C-alpha cells in the first residue's frame, strides 16, 4: 500500500488539469490552494504553473500502474470483508482520485458499504478529501452546524437558518454546503434566495466570518475532487460512505460542530470518525428521523471531544418548547424556504423558529459561546425574538455581494 501514498500528488494534478479556475503552486508536493493574508490580491497566479503541472503529470503517469495494482489489492481485501486501516482508506481514496476507472471507484464504494464502514475507514476517506480541498483561514474558533441530509422529509433549511441565528448570538460560523441533492432546496439555494452570494473564494469567505459572523463555502468550489466521484455516486443510486463525509469536509476545518445524521445507527460512526479526525468538540445528533434537533421529540446525542465520546439527550420540553409535527417544519422551493426563514429571523414564533433556536442554542454550547445547552437556547431565543438575526443576515448579504464584485474586478 505504500505506493498509493504518492497518489495524492497525482490526484492534485488531475484536479488542477481539469479545473482551470484553481491554480497550482510550484513549491511543495501538493497543488492545494491556500489563502493569502492580503485580501483580493492575486496570490494564486504562479508563472510556472504550466511547468509545475507538467511535472506532476509526469509523476502521475509513473505511478499510475502501481496505483492500479494497489487498488486491486484493496478491493480484494474488501471482497474478503476485511477492514481497512485509516491509512489504507486514505491512500485508496487518493488513488481513486488520481486516476482510477469508474468501475474501480464504484466497486470500492459498494464493497465498503456492503462490509460496513468503520470509523477508521470513514476518517481515512475524509482525510484524503480534506488534503485536496481549497482551505479557508476563517479562524480557530469557527462552528459548523450541518447535517448529512438524506432524511427525506423536505423540511425548511433548519441547519442553515441555525447558522445565521448562532452568528447573531456571537458565534463565528463557517458553513459548508451545496445545492439541493436529496431535498427540494439545498443550503446554497436558500441562501441565494436570501440575497447571499454563495460562490466566493477563500479570502472572501474568511472576511464574511470575521466581519458578519457567518460565511458560506460552496462545496464544488472548495472540493474539486468531488467532481471525479460524483458521476459514479449518481449512477450507483445507493448510499455510500460519501453520504457521511459532507460534515467532515468543512474547508475551514472548523474545530466545533453540531452534526446531524440521517439515522440513529450512524450517530456512533459519525462521532468516532470525527474524533479520529481530531475535532475539538462536536455534538452528533439524530432526532425523530431528522438529521437535526427538532421540537417533535427528544434528540439523542453523542458529545465528542479528543478524549471521550459521551451520550446525552436534549428534550425541547425541558426548555419550554412545545412539541410539533413534521408538517409544521415542512418547506418547499427556495423562495418559500427563504420567506419562512426570514420570518423566523424577524421574530415570528412557531415550530420553525423553535427548531432554529434548538439547533443554534446547542451549537452555541458546542463551541463554548454558551456554557451549556440551556444557556445556548436562552441566548438563541432572545436573538430570534428580537429580530437580531435579520440584521446579521442583511449584513452578510451586503458584504458577500460587495466581496463578489471585488473578486470579479480582480479576474477582469
Strand percent estimate: 5-15%
What are the segments in which pLDDT stays under 50 over at least 5 consecutive residues?
Answer: 1-6, 16-50, 60-64
Structural class: alpha/beta
Strands, total number: 7
Overall mean confidence score, pLDDT: 86
In whole angstroms, how far apart are the ends? 45 Å
User: What coarse outline follows from CA principal-axis ratios?
Assistant: globular
Strand order of the largest sheet: 1-4-5-6-7
Write the CATH architecture name of the largest domain.
3-Layer(aba) Sandwich
Rg computed from alpha carbons, rounded to a whole number of angstroms: 21 Å
Secondary-structure element string? HHHHHEHEHHEHHHEHEEEHHHH
CATH homologous superfamily grouping of the largest domain: Nucleoside phosphorylase/phosphoribosyltransferase catalytic domain
Structural description of this entry:
There is one protein chain. This protein has 412 residues and is an alpha/beta fold. It folds into two domains: 130 residues, Up-down Bundle (Transferase, Pyrimidine Nucleoside Phosphorylase, Chain A, domain 3), CATH 1.20.970.10; 253 residues, Nucleoside phosphorylase/phosphoribosyltransferase catalytic domain (Pyrimidine Nucleoside Phosphorylase, Chain A, domain 2, 3-Layer(aba) Sandwich), CATH 3.40.1030. Helices cover 51% and strands 9% of the residues. Strands 1-4-5-6-7 form a five-stranded mixed sheet, with helices on both faces. The protein has a two-stranded parallel sheet with strand order 2-3. Strand 6 and strand 7 form a beta hairpin. Helix 1 crosses helix 2, helix 4 packs across helix 10 and helix 6 packs across helix 16. The chain is globular, with a radius of gyration of 21 Å.
Amino acid at each position: 500500500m505504500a505506493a498509493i501514498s504518492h497518489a495524492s500528488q497525482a490526484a492534485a494534478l488531475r484536479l488542477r488539469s481539469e479545473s482551470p479556475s484553481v491554480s497550482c503552486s510550484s513549491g511543495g508536493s501538493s497543488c492545494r490552494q491556500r489563502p493569502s493574508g492580503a485580501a483580493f490580491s492575486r496570490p494564486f497566479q504562479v508563472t510556472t504553473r504550466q511547468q509545475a503541472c507538467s511535472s506532476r503529470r509526469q509523476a502521475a503517469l509513473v505511478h499510475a500502474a502501481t496505483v492500479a495494482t494497489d487498488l486491486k489489492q484493496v478491493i480484494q481485501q474488501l471482497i474478503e470483508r476485511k477492514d481497512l486501516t485509516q491509512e489504507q482508506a486514505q491512500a485508496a481514496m487518493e488513488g481513486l482520485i488520481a486516476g482510477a476507472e469508474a468501475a474501480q471507484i464504484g466497486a470500492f464504494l459498494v464493497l465498503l458499504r456492503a462490509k460496513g464502514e468503520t470509523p477508521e475507514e470513514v476518517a481515512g476517506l475524509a482525510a484524503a478529501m480534506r488534503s485536496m480541498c481549497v482551505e479557508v483561514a476563517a479562524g480557530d474558533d469557527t462552528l459548523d452546524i450541518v447535517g448529512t441530509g438524506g432524511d427525506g422529509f423536505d423540511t425548511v433549511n433548519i441547519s442553515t437558518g441555525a447558522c445565521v441565528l448562532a452568528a447573531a448570538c456571537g458565534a463565528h460560523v463557517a458553513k459548508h454546503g451545496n445545492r439541493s441533492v436529496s431535498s427540494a432546496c439545498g443550503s446554497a439555494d436558500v441562501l441565494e434566495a436570501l440575497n447571499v452570494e454563495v460562490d466566493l473564494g477563500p479570502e472572501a469567505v474568511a472576511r464574511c466570518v470575521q466581519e458578519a459572523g457567518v460565511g458560506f463555502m460552496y462545496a464544488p468550489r472548495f472540493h474539486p475532487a468531488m467532481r471525479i466521484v460524483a458521476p459514479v455516486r449518481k449512477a450507483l443510486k445507493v448510499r455510500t460512505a460519501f453520504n457521511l463525509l459532507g460534515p467532515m469536509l468543512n474547508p475551514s476545518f472548523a474545530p466545533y460542530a453540531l452534526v446531524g445524521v440521517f439515522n440513529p445507527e450512524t450517530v456512533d460512526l459519525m462521532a468516532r470518525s470525527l474524533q479520529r479526525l481530531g475535532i475539538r468538540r462536536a455534538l452528533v445528533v439524530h432526532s425523530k428521523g431528522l438529521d437535526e434537533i427538532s421540537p417533535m421529540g427528544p434528540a439523542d446525542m453523542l458529545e465528542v471531544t479528543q478524549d471521550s465520546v459521551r451520550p446525552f439527550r436534549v428534550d425541547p420540553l425541558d426548555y419550554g418548547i412545545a412539541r410539533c409535527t413534521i408538517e409544521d417544519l415542512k418547506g418547499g422551493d427556495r423562495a418559500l424556504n427563504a420567506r419562512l426563514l426570514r420570518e423566523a429571523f424577524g421574530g415570528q414564533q412557531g415550530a420553525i423558529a423553535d427548531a432554529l433556536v434548538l439547533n443554534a442554542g446547542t451549537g452555541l454550547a458546542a463551541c463554548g459561546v454558551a456554557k451549556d445547552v440551556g444557556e445556548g437556547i436562552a441566548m438563541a431565543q432572545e436573538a430570534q425574538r428580537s429580530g437580531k438575526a435579520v440584521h446579521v443576515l442583511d449584513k452578510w448579504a451586503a458584504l458577500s455581494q460587495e466581496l463578489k464584485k471585488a473578486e470579479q474586478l480582480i479576474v477582469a
